[in-house]
Amino acid sequence: MTRVLCIEADVSLARLLEKHLIRAGYVVTTVHTGEKGLYQCEPDIYDVVIVNYRLPDMTGLDVLQHLAGTIPAILMTAAGSERLAVQAMKSGAADYISLDIDLKCLQQLPVMIEQALAEHSAARNLIAEQQRMIEDLDAFAHTVAHDLKNPLNVIIGTSEMLLDMMQDERPKMRQHQQTIRNIAYKMYSIVEELLLLAKLRRDEQEIATHVLDMDLIVDEVLARLSYSIHRSDARILRPQKWYVAEGYTAWIEEVWVNYISNAIKYGGEPPVVELGSELLNDGTIRFWVYDNGAGVPPDVVDDLFREFSQFSPDGRTEGHGLGLSIVRRIVEQLGGGVGVESSAGQGSTFWFTLPAAGYHKSVSNVEIDRSAAS
Asked: Do both 352 and 239 map to the same domain?
């Protein structure tokens, strides 16, 4: 049995609506204000909503915007309100009905209700099917990426072993072997980025931001990058104080990994990488990574955070143009922004912003004061 909720302030019109709908076989509940209607508007209680534009506490458009398409809704308007009807459709109405003087238009309601229910059901089925396809593709991509990691690890390990064994071999042979190793590392990096993208898609539906302990996050990042730091003899300069932001620890760790690893990779010889933070006037905190590398030309800066965009000042392209685009996606999802300040020959400062902890509660931002590490 189809359940209809009517939101109608005019008692006489409400009774007439009930009469028509009950006669057509619907179960009808009537309320006389938008607030009461919204309080009862639950998809598992009612199948369709009929709401008049004129209500004592809000408009029918307000009701539609609150429903946001969760329940099919039909808006009733005065005759000749075509502009209002267009607004209703833009606000998510399944249909609208213009009330004429003799109210014979109410006889159209059963047909409109059935059509609205059919369209809503079809849309839900389509969304469910799309969601299943996305989940299947995510699962497939995740499985393939994991399956690729194992043989890549074997190729990388074997390449490293062969290079050690070929110390006295001809330079040309070592060069070919190094090429194999570098390509394997590049493929491994692509797989890691794809796995991170898949993880982001899953986590986006369930993340809850919290106050970040940035010092501990950076500790974890530097532990992950310890081999690169040692191999390149990089010097990492950390601040004594971090401004406190809100975010999601696992995601922000990936942001730092990307920024710091790039700073090491493209920094000077040896790389000097400086980290820091500052509180901005708009209630956000700007975190930054400076490197002493060759810098980025102005004509390249705008493209760095786009998918598959690659730039290397010395031609060492080791990624696949996904890293910085993932960083941008992470930070924007958390309510911040990303950017870079750089010029050729002057090094680069890559930054990201996050909401300051307690800013919207009028609480002063607290600094975590710890000894500097390098």
From this structure: yes
The answer, yes or no, to whether residue 49 has pLDDT greater than 70, is yes
Cα–Cα distance measured from residue 144 to residue 191, given in angstroms and rounded to the nearest whole number:
9
The answer as to whether 64 is a domain residue is: yes
Domain that holds residue 93: 3-99
Structure tokens at 172: 């040309």
Cα 161 to chain centroid, rounded: 41
Clarify whether residues 132 and 202 are in a common domain.
yes
Length of the chain (residues): 374
User: Do residues 234 and 267 lie in contact, with contact meaning Cβ atoms separated by under 8 Å?
Assistant: yes
What are the residues facing 350 on neighbouring strands? 289, 340
Same domain, 216 and 187: no
Looking at the domain assignment, is residue 258 inside a domain? yes
Q: What is the pLDDT of residues 290-328, one digit of tens each?
A: 999 888 877 666 678 776 555 555 544 444 456 788 888
Q: Which of 206, 236, 270 is the last residue of a domain?
A: 206
Could you tell me the two tokens for 152?
A: 């890549």
Give dist(CA 53, CA 96) in Å, integer: 10
Q: Give residue 363's pLDDT band: very low, low, confident or very high (50, 70, 90).
A: very low
Please say if the pLDDT value at position 39 is more than 60: yes
Q: What is the tens place of the pLDDT at every residue in 162-201? A: 777 776 667 777 676 777 777 776 677 667 666 766 666 6
Residue the block writes with tokens 């047909």: 111
Specify whether 231 is located in the same domain as 365: yes
Q: In angstroms, rounded to a whole number, what is the distance separating the alpha carbons of residues 215 and 263? A: 18
Name the residue among 50, 65, 57 with its Cα closest to residue 95.
50
Closest CA to 350 of 310, 312, 295: 295
CATH number of the structural domain spanning residue 196: 1.10.287
11: CB partners within 8 A, 6+ apart: 32
Identify which of 91, 81, 334 has the alpha carbon closest to the alpha carbon of residue 203.
334
For the chain, how many structural domains are there in total? 3
User: Which of 206, 233, 252 represents a domain boundary (last residue)?
Assistant: 206
Angle between helices 249-266 and 171-203 (to 10 degrees): 160
Indicate the average pLDDT of the chain.
79
Regarding pTM above 0.70, the answer is no
The residue among 40, 34, 2 whose CA lies nearest residue 21 is 2
Same-domain status, 214 and 183:
no
Q: Are residues 217 and 173 in the same domain?
A: no
